[in-house]
Amino acid sequence: MILPPKLKLLLFLSSQMAIFILFIHLYSYNFNSQNMKEEPNPTHMHVLVLSSWRSGSSFVGQLFAQHPDVFYLMEPAWHVWMTFTQSTAQRLHMAVRDLIRAVFLCDMSVFDAYMKPGPRKQSSLFQWYSSRALCSPPACNVLPQNETISQSDCRILCNQEPFEVVEKACHSHSHVVLKEVRFFNLQVLYPLLRDPSLNLHIVHLVRDPRAVFRSRERTTQDLMIDSHIVMGQDWQKLKKEDQPYYAMQVICQSQLEIYKAVQSLPKVLRQRYLLMRYEDLARDPLAQTARMYEYVGLKFLPQLQTWVYNITRGKGMGGHAFQTNARNALSVSQAWRWSLPYEKVSRLQKVCGNTMNLLGYHLATSEQEQKNLSLDLLSTWSPYQQIYQEG
Hints:
This protein is an alpha/beta fold. Helices cover 50% and strands 7% of the residues.
């Protein structure tokens, strides 16, 4: 049958339209598929406890580490710094950031660059026993999964597990929490905040610089390599008595810049930042822990509430400086006031005054004010409220 010319034209146009629609459909499908691959939904909540040495960060790390839903590592970037001990903090920023990202994604092969080749155990990780997740199944089957675990027991019973269990343990928890003290600005973390494969939330822990200084004095030898990296090449030019103040100047300035940088972020990213003062935590540990847990979507389980209560109401100032054990948290937070000479306090306040003012730490204008414990040197104004009020 011979079709009329107009009908032929109509059929031809219809077939071309069908082909065009099919092409658009396939293109749209492929485009969406690529987007889905490029922007996967994160399967974990990723939390970075961002702080500095001797600021109570090990304690805050344990508040997260003891939760059964958390995979926690303490200062994984220690491995980077101990590999490049002659470098500077700024030069190592990118390497530290890349390691942190890999660990958040449970890719532990990143440590290959910073550990000796050959078979290794999970105990090769810095302070591995501070992670409850590495002291319980599936990493270690000796200790129970739903109870708080002491670091001493873990260190004895779980130190022979192969390194491969670290990645397995990471994948088996809903939250990955890393505590790190080796970031000195927020800008280096911007790519992680915008990374679609991460659901990054930052807990920025700060502490009164006078308390930090006092604690650093008692751990000078332990922190010597880190302090040299912090000071960079300048440490060799400084008198020995000036070095602690210069290190504190760098640390205070970095905490100040991180806090200020957050306020320039878009609101959606500011909501991924939580400022925590150690002193607020020491004064009301249950309420402040609940605040952190709510921020990252963790339930404050009854056994954890009991653990937090007991660990912050111990007697004395605690044991080893780098271990979290029962101590009087409030006394620890104020120890500098009766043990640090005022001449050091005065000099430190000149070095860190801007940071102290912004974060709500009042200056002690005399030795009498310093030692008068009835005089509160912590502002009741909450600096973290400003971040959201200005947005």
